[in-house]
Amino acid sequence: MAHRIVCLLLSLGLCLGLAGCREPEELPSRPEEAAFSWDRWEAERQQIACTVAQVDVVDTTFTHDETGQAVAELLGRSLIVYPRYAGEVTGDYTGLPGEYLLLTALLGTDGTTPGITPGAANAEVRFVAEEVAGANGRRQFITKEQVEYAARAIFGEEVELEHRSVPAGAPEDQQFRYYEEYGVYGYPDTQPIWYLPVLLDLYPVRFDTYEAYLIFVRYSDDSQNAFWGPGTEPIARWEIEEYANYHIEDFSPYTVTLLDRFGELTIQEIRPATEAP
């Protein structure tokens, strides 16, 4: 009997020993990687860098000096969606529609690219990028802080925005969709439409006032160095000034009055041009 008890104890000890030597089970991912944290995201989103996108300026005779370049940059930043809203913008450039302000700011920021934009290299950023990626799989977004920063840089510190998907009434694949739960905008699945002003003339009317004469063009689909003219054929970037001057009757030119106060340019008025200067 004693012999049997000893054998049982030895057998039990062996089993326990073997159990203690088993391969450890794989631990789950760290909590911060396994689940999205709303508290962390709210704090981290506000740490993502805010920058204003570089303005594309079509080189013309009047962009070669400091004033002409500054005017072209101001027009290119502020009027990037103007032709679409020309009927809603007053001539003195006041009371800009909320959608105009919001779209201009959305197109005027660099937005967020995970792993590249400063402050955008954490798990929450990657999660949000996946959540808002559209049918085109574009894993980039724009935070509401980035939009507000661009709006202030373009329109001044007093500007106010109402965050919502724009353009209103457009199909979802053509909208900057606002995800209120994350505080970010997703990019449209289709290329958004924006315009570039081409500065065809610039002249002083008083010591602190300039008038600019311009047309608007859009990038053509086949090349980033060509624009749509009045017809169906794209026009190369380096030919657009000459083409416009010879075919101005086919375009819709505008005159813009600009005020220069201590080196700071502002748009005072924009109106259809009745005749070339």
What does this structure look like?
- The protein has 277 residues and is an alpha+beta fold.
- 31% of the residues lie in helices and 19% in strands.
- It has 9 helices and 9 strands.
- The chain has helices spanning 2-20, 31-34, 38-45, 66-78, 82-85, 98-107, 123-132, 144-155, 240-246; strands at residues 141-143, 177-179, 184-186, 196-206, 209-219, 226-228, 234-236, 254-261, 264-272.
- Strands 4, 5, 6, 7, 8 and 9 form a 6-stranded antiparallel beta sheet that branches. A 3-stranded antiparallel beta sheet has the order 1-3-2.
- Helix 6 packs across helix 8.
- The longest helix is centred in the first third of the chain and has 19 residues, at 2-20.
- The N and C termini lie far apart (120 Å).
- Mean pLDDT is 86; it is low at 1-33.
Largest sheet: 6 strands, antiparallel
Strand percent estimate: 15-25%
Q: Which class do the helix and strand fractions yield?
A: alpha+beta
Shape, per Cα inertia axes: globular
Say what oligomer this is: single chain
Radius of gyration: 29 Å
Mean pLDDT: 86
Helix content: 25-40%
What count of helical segments does DSSP give? 9
The unreliable regions are 1-33
The ordered string of helix (H) and strand (E) elements is HHHHHHHEHEEEEEEHEE
Q: What is the number of beta strands?
A: 9
What is the CA–CA distance across the termini?
120 Å
Topology:
Elements: H1 2-20, H2 31-34, H3 38-45, H4 66-78, H5 82-85, H6 98-107, H7 123-132, E1 141-143, H8 144-155, E2 177-179, E3 184-186, E4 196-206, E5 209-219, E6 226-228, E7 234-236, H9 240-246, E8 254-261, E9 264-272
Antiparallel strand pairs: 1-3, 2-3, 4-5, 5-6, 5-8, 6-7, 8-9
